[in-house]
What does this fold into?
Amino acid sequence: MQVINRIDQMKDLIRDIRRQGKTVGFVPTMGYLHEGHLTLMRTAKRKTDFVAASIFVNPLQFGVGEDYEDYPRDLSRDTELAEGAGVEAIFAPAVRDMYPPGYATFVEVEKLTGKLCGRSRPGHFRGVTTVVTKLLNIVEPDIAFFGQKDAQQVIVLQKMAQDLNMNVEIEVVPTVREQDGLAMSSRNTYLAPAEREAALVLSRSLDMAAKLVDSGERNIPFLKSEVTEFITGEPLAKIDYVDILSVPDLEERETLEGKALLALAVYIGKTRLIDNVILTV
Ligand code: AMP
It folds into this structure.
């Protein structure tokens, strides 16, 4: 296992791996690894010969007043966990190397980023698409792995890869959950015990909606209001958004047809959590 900080060294390593005729899998993360990240890494290990992961808390995707400074970081623990999951190289660049003084180039996907998290967090997806483009240019993987946990992110990244003719396959890995249903997230560490319990309202509301759909419900405004009411019943929860949109276009619809994304962002105390399910009829 190698931990590489410098961009030129990472490029040299990948060039060596390529010369050996190996395929490269890549898992970009912000670190503080949990079973969700490790599942992405194990999947990458199954599908490619050499797996690299990045650990980079990207300042560009955090808004003013968000948790960039407080975001949990533990590189030595992450290195050990990633190695156990089959990662052979960790790329952990410095912010000043990724965005040196005078940095001026950004990647923006329009339309899709005006909904859901893009509406609540202006500039967030511009930060994500810019850093992912830079990381993909450095690592040049055959396949890059992302989690369904961040449903809008994968839709935006797939659109970016397609529109910019990138030589990478974007592979989506299902959301990994705690035993009680809470979607794993590095931000779950912020939750006090009572908040951890209250946070179950997210996955439970998704389960409830999926059951309504299974029993024949197709009315999208009704499903949204049921989910909203369910979450409002939890005193520690405050809804940022509850939405049901078509995939992959993220358009509003009245009636459920085919596949739709039910996505939530909910504050539990000060912690903003997201979760989603694909509703299929
Ligand atoms: P992050 O470190 O939060 O930026 O996440 C890095 C990658 O891990 C992203 O592709 C996320 O979608 C993915 N990820 C985060 N949490 C989970 C989870 N619970 N299940 C599956 N993938 C996840």
